Amino acid sequence: MKIFLIGGTGFLGSAAAEELIKRGHEIRAIALPPAPEVVYPPQMELEFNDYLTLTDDEIRDLFYGCDGFIFAAGMNERVSGPSPIYEYYIKNNVTPLEKYLRIAKECGVKHTVICGSYFSYFDKKWPHLELAKWHPYIQSRREQEKMALSFADDDFNVAILELPYIFGVQQGREPVWTILVKAIRSMKIVTMYPKGGTAMITRKQAAQAIAGALETSKGGKCWPIGCYNMPWRSFLSIVHKNMGMPGRIVITIPNWLLNIGIKYMEEKLRESGENISGIYLPKLSGIQSADAYIDRLRGCNQLGVEDDDIEKAIGESIRISADFLDGKIKNQTLV
């Protein structure tokens, strides 16, 4: 199968390209310029251009001869920006994808995979939390799903992967777990964290889920993805070990205390005139303290995702983040 991929040099896109090439597929990809220093598969046909600015005819040229389409781009919940940030998410996560899906279908593409968020799954699972109502990022992801599924039919398969936390490294990419490492370092004696936990996968498993969905998913379907469910206390034990502080005590804090810290964050952001991550901070505790778990039978097993070493992947992510903060590395090169 020949596949057009948006996000070819990204954390997920490059891993998916590598997995698909191993399976015998051809990859034509686009990525934002300039060319980054990250490592990506050399066999991939790659063009550097802004996918948001291409004309319909330019997009048709990219889809020419392709049977598959992967959207591994857009903005995640960590993005900060001026209020109202919802419009920014729609501009990057919904509007361009609608255009690409329309043209993909016109060009005879048969299989599409969209890298989404597990927040969409939990918005459906926990209606009492009204996640899409309160959080602009989650609202945009739900709009993305609704829009994308409207294109699906017997001749155009649309699979949306509701992805959880993903651990692993891509050489040359700035790590994303520096925020957690900095937060733990700022707590001098113990680590204070809410109750709850999260689903997670490795970068390799994310690539396998993308490939499996592209090859096997039929019609329009959302796939909740999670291979490992881990309480925050267990996760932090791995984090502490890789930060050089094994055995550090974790104190589980109640939501009222978490809300005090969140209120402080909110005040600081209001002073700067920014909204953080598209997550409405006064409602953050409801997500952060939940058991955000996903049964691997709902997606990973059906898509052929194999077991992997999640503790190793977490450790690599944390060590790279710590070394990056300490100025020991400029690029993510594991030694």
Structure report:
The longest helix is centred in the N-terminal third of the chain and has 21 residues. The radius of gyration is 20 Å and the shape is globular. With 335 residues, it is α/β, with parallel strands linked by helices. The chain has a seven-stranded parallel β-sheet, with helices on both faces. Helices cover 42% and strands 20% of the residues. Helix 1 links the parallel strand 1 and strand 2. It is built from twelve helices and 15 strands.
The count of β-strands is: 15
Spatial shape: globular
Q: How are helices and strands ordered from N to C?
A: EHEEHEEHEHHHEEHEEHEEHEHEHEH
In which range does the helix fraction lie? Answer: 40-55%
Q: Which properties best describe this structure?
A:
seven-stranded parallel beta sheet; 335 residues; alpha/beta; 15 strands; 12 helices; four-stranded mixed beta sheet
